[in-house]
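Input sequence (135 aa), recorded before submission:
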Amino acid sequence: MSAQKGSAFLLKVGDGGSPIVYATVAGLRTTQLSVNGEAVNVTSKDSGGWRELLSGAGVRSVSVAGSGIFTGSAAETRLKGNALGGMLDDYELSFEGGERMRGRFLVTRLDYAGDYNGERTYTLALESSGAVSAV
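Predicted structure, token format:
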């Protein structure tokens, strides 16, 4: 398998419609995805001295982080509205190989910055709420 381009890792936000149409949050330069899980330890005296974990148990979550150039796109405006309102929304992550993940996320951080004679940038963080599925 060849290496995949990081620029092909896209964050998209839903439009609130039915069916949901996703729009790319424009200007992303860096993105990161973390799948988190808590282990449930079921080790007992019958475990022979080895730790045993319970499959399928515990709390799972997905965290997404990104940064980029602010372009004022409709997708960025929706994301900013979600951040200000503390609203959950539908998001999609897509990758160069064609894989996609969808779920509901909360924007937990949205920072804007800018330099004199430079572009306006932003950094964001999202946390999943409910199941995140591969599509």
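Checked by second reader. The first strand starts at residue 10 and ends at 14.
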